Amino acid sequence: MRQVLGAMLTLMLALAVPAAAQETKQETKKVDPVVVTATMVDTPAEQLGVALTVVTGEDLKTYQYSTLDDAFRSIPGVNVVQQGSYGKLSTLSIRGANSSQVLILVDGVRVSSPTVGQTDLSDISPDLIERIEVIRGPQSTLYGADAIGGVVNIITKKGTGPFSATVENMGGNYDTLHNKISLGGAYKIFNYSLSGSHLESNGQFQNDNSNINAVSGRVGVSLPFDSSLAFVYRYNKTDTGVPVKGVFPPPQPVDPIINPNAKQQTETTVMSLEGKTRPVEWWESRARISRYTNNQGFQDPVDPGFDFDFPFRSQVDVERREAEWLNSIFLGKWSTTTVGFGYRHEEGDNKGVFRTARHVPWVLFEEQLRFFDRLFITGGFRIEDDSVFGQATTAQGSVAFVIKETGTRLRGSAGTGFRAPTFNDLFFPDFGNPDLLPERSQSWDVGVDQNLWQNRIRLKLSYFATNFSDAIVCCVPLPTAPFGGPVNAGRARSKGVEAGGEVDILPNLVASFAYSYTDTDNLSTNRPLARIPRNAGSAGLTWEPIPRLSLFAQVYVVSRQFDSYGDLYNSGHTRVDAGGTYRLLDRFGWLQRLELVARAQNILNEKYAEVHGFPALGANFLVGLRAGF
């Protein structure tokens, strides 16, 4: 693999030099992003003491991601696990924290299921995204329950400028078809952006089909006194076959037993209305109300040829309603104080099994201090009062020190976090335990960011450590659970190193890399934490050999990882992706541009599974056209 990467880099350098020589030489400049997730107010990334990665909307467009999970695979410390092909369960973990200990937001609205606790990335389309902010490390002080490993905030694109529209159609093997349309703009005080998409594929097995439809929109209005209102709506409907037949007792066989008729449907809706005002320089107020729903149905009729099979059907509907009000006081350039209040109400209805609800009022305080435009200190605390298990208090602090003369930023953070028991943990008949307490964590990290060669080289390095306590483990005999229920008996730890960077080799050739070393230990079982590779890395190149052509290549290398059940491990794997965009036509009537787009995944047809017994998709590609108006 080293020889392949070396040859690819040498070839690109040789071909890129003539094209680069034709361009006017100029200093490469990168704008420091303004981040909204790591604090409660817009803050330049330079002033943050946390480990941060921003995936831009331009990145999503460049790499032609058909599904959201692929956007996270090159972020250090983040591990993506997909249970097979398109549309199947896809989750992420951060720094050893599992998928139910990582909080995913859409425009600040949490989108995890109250029943199972995790977020399925297949239920979120990659359409109409301005950027994705990924904060690694505990964020329960800002966001409450379930933010032990970190927070992912997916931010919807705002319409700007005159009316514009894009239509894209792609097709590929496995009978895959992907269609997208988007439009947006601004008129006087109004702005708007809308999109719709359709993705279908027949997959690699019988009954491995998927059909994903999504609609997204944002409408905003600018008001006097630096005020604004915005309404965001996102809807995703997924229909998939479930081709792998579950076996009992586990584990699943490497070569799956095909289930020819099991089906699953999910519908996810996210709505939010947000208002913001700053009538005077020293005061800013923001308020949001939101609603999240997820309905999931599953049907598995009797399989032909199985004499002892039995039918199974389930329907789980969940809803979350939230309201929050934040007020920030600015004292010159050196202090920002934020106080927030909020309320969260969650309901879960597992048809014919149980139905329950919880409500959670909360309050938070955050202080940001800035000294000499070099030293930045942030700290705060949050109190949540859960109607099921009671009160939980978390605290966090971070510091960043910038040495402008050398392009260096030193940073560090520490904090506590917790994960609330899910409705399934608490109330599932014969298995739940209503006396469960939250899972707890204590974490810290230190890091350095270094820019070199007039900002053409951008490097980041972090060390982290997390201790988990009161982890919910199953199962022990309980009076309320005759088959054994979960208890707060688990302890674990995770520590490691994250490294990443970008290098502008030439004005038209950029290289990137990421590496994570994650050492985990489930102290209750003396096993590693499940599905967390000890070593994971990626490398990429983006290249514009001529003004009309943009190419990319990405390589992901993942070491073997413990799965579950005794000594079961998933083998390590190497995945290679590539693709690009070629502009066929510029400005013809209403047509602003016509582009040929292509993406190929797993080019080497690597045989691997991110979940044991659920093989990943083999070599697959999509090719099509994208027209802009």
Quick rundown:
The protein is mainly beta. It has four helices and 33 strands. The strands form five sheets. The protein has a 22-stranded antiparallel β-barrel.
Give a structural overview.
The chain has 629 residues and is mostly beta strands. The protein has one domain: Beta Barrel (Maltoporin, Chain A). Helix content is 6%, strand content 59%. The strands form five sheets. It has a 22-stranded antiparallel barrel. Strands 3-8-9-6-7 form a five-stranded mixed beta sheet. Strands 1-2 form a two-stranded antiparallel sheet. The radius of gyration is 24 Å and the shape is globular. It starts with a helix and ends with a strand. The N terminus is likely disordered.
| Helix and strand composition category | mainly beta
CATH topology name, in short, is Maltoporin, Chain A
- Number of discrete helical segments: 4
Tell me the count of domains: 1
Major sheet attributes: 22 strands, antiparallel, barrel
Low-confidence segments, ≥5 residues, pLDDT <50? 1-29
CATH architecture: Beta Barrel
The amount of helix comes to: under 10%
Radius of gyration over all CA atoms, rounded: 24 Å
What is the C-level CATH assignment? Mainly Beta
Number of strands: 33
